[in-house]
Write a structure and sequence with these properties.
two-stranded antiparallel ribbon, 3 domains, Rossmann fold, globular, disordered C terminus, 462 residues, alpha/beta, 53% helix
Length: 462
């Protein structure tokens, strides 16, 4: 491998085999829908196992060749692009596959669940989880505006209601320039969007206050108890004389997406008058042995130097149970994470959708565990009301209680519903929001929600 043309040629060859796997998966999904199990179905399962083994080996070989080429001084623009954006190997594979799909199969539908099922050829839950995290709408690929969700156009097959994934047009044009050899430098917009160093990439001023977070009062009181006592100065009691580690505050926020976990972390930082250092797994992982541990240490050093509250999103990826891991490098960075959490004397917030996958050793290092559940009928009206901007007049017919009762949604979905209503106001150049507007926004969001009964089974936990 000497240049970008070799790089893309080799990966796109792999993609043709991923398409073969896709065909096999569709046969399996059809059998699952038909509730049949015969000799033909067993043969298809064997085909899947065979192609997974082949792809896993070829994938390992490809990334080994990339590492060797970079070590020999080859300039690979996609690798430079990925470094600028902070992408790990899972994100790179997803972006490359979507590029391949755009260039050679532009009329096909490419959805989240299907892409994850194709790219994951490993036998461990760790790999499945990381691919899922890499391509979810909350992932780095979307935050960095590399991938986007395409609007629904009625082409979805059957019950598959996952979003259709595409490349951001500007990113797509840049990557095609790499493929064709016309581009010799990384475009300026890439460096402008993603040129921050790893340890400072997520350092910012918090945006939310504790009043913005709609929570059960007892939960809010428990959180405030921990941070206010920390602010009060435990050092005055001579704590350091007897307790050498674990003097900081570590929160674990767990529960479904869109329930306010990251929002609460942001509000904690603001309540304490500190910046927040928000970190996601793809920003710090590196396939080279030992680099991820170094990046984790940099994060904690930066937090200490800036007196910031650290928020680790998708903490399950960084603190996955070591009992389920097969590779020494993965166990190593979990060890480092656990050690750094115990040593850090500030405030850490860990958020996750999958608390059952966390390493058991984390439990004693956590000061307070908060389980986030979808808001009940009593909390939902307050969320609807809190999301209406101050410049918007609430019409006399708006009934937040009715909205909370009628639509069973978490805060993230309610936010999307309100945004839909506000888009309608913007189009019609109005500043007064009505009940009809909010019902319109809620119904639009409800139709697009990834409901469990609409998901296509793919052979592992949803």
């Amino acid at each position: 491998m000497k240049n970008d043309q070799d790089y893309f040629s080799e990966f796109f060859t792999l993609c043709e085999f991923y398409l073969q796997k896709r065909a096999i998966l569709h046969k399996i999904w059809t059998h699952v829908d038909d509730n049949t199990c015969d000799n033909a179905y067993c043969a298809v399962l064997r085909d899947l196992k065979t192609i997974d083994a082949f792809l896993e080996e070829e994938d390992r070989k490809f990334w080994r060749d990339v590492a060797v080429a970079k070590g020999d001084g080859a300039r690979l623009l996609f690798e430079e692009f990925s470094a600028e954006k902070g992408l790990g190997v899972f994100e790179k594979k997803a972006a490359l596959f979507v590029l391949f799909a755009h260039m050679f199969h532009p009329h096909s539908i490419w959805q989240e669940t299907e892409i994850v099922a194709m790219l994951d050829c490993g036998s461990t839950w760790d790999s499945k989880l990381r691919y899922r995290n890499a391509i979810m709408p909350e992932s780095l690929l979307f935050k960095m505006n590399i991938l986007v969700i395409k609007p629904r156009d009625g082409r979805c097959r059957g019950a598959m209601q996952d979003p259709e994934i595409a490349l951001n047009p500007a990113t797509c044009a840049a990557l095609i320039g790499f493929v064709s050899g016309k581009a010799t430098e990384i475009p300026a917009f890439v460096k402008e969007d993603g040129g921050a160093s790893i340890e400072n990439a997520g350092l910012r001023d918090p945006e939310y206050s504790m009043e913005d977070v709609i929570l059960v009062q007892k939960v809010k009181e428990d959180v405030l108890f921990h941070i206010d006592s920390w602010k009060g100065g435990l050092g005055d009691l001579g704590v350091g004389e007897k307790i050498k580690k674990g003097r900081g505050v570590a929160f674990l926020f767990y529960g479904p997406p869109g329930t306010g976990k990251s929002m609460l972390a942001d509000a904690i930082a603001r309540h304490m008058g500190k910046k927040i250092l928000q970190v996601a797994m793809p920003q710090i992982t590196d396939k080279l042995f030992g680099e991820t541990e170094k990046n984790i240490s940099k994060i904690f050093k930066t937090a200490k130097a800036t007196d910031a509250v650290i928020c680790f999103d998708e903490a399950d990826s960084l603190l996955y149970s070591r009992q389920r891991m097969e590779h020494e490098r993965d166990i190593a960075f979990v060890n480092v994470m656990l050690q750094e959490i115990e040593r850090y004397e500030g405030v850490i917030c860990l958020t996750t959708n999958f608390d059952t996958m966390l390493d058991p050793a984390l439990e004693r290092r956590v000061s307070l565990k908060v389980r986030f559940t979808p808001p009940d009928q009593l909390l939902r009206p307050g969320i609807w009301k809190s999301l209406i901007p101050s410049k918007v007049t609430v019409g006399p017919d708006v009934d937040f209680e009715e909205l909370g009762q009628k639509f069973v949604m978490s805060g993230g979905y309610i936010k999307n519903a309100v945004m839909n209503a506000l888009r309608r106001l913007s189009q019609e150049k109005r500043t007064t929001i009505t009940m009809e507007d909010l019902l319109f926004g809620a119904k639009m969001e409800q139709e697009g929600m990834f409901l469990k009964e609409n998901k296509q089974p793919i052979g592992f936990a949803a």
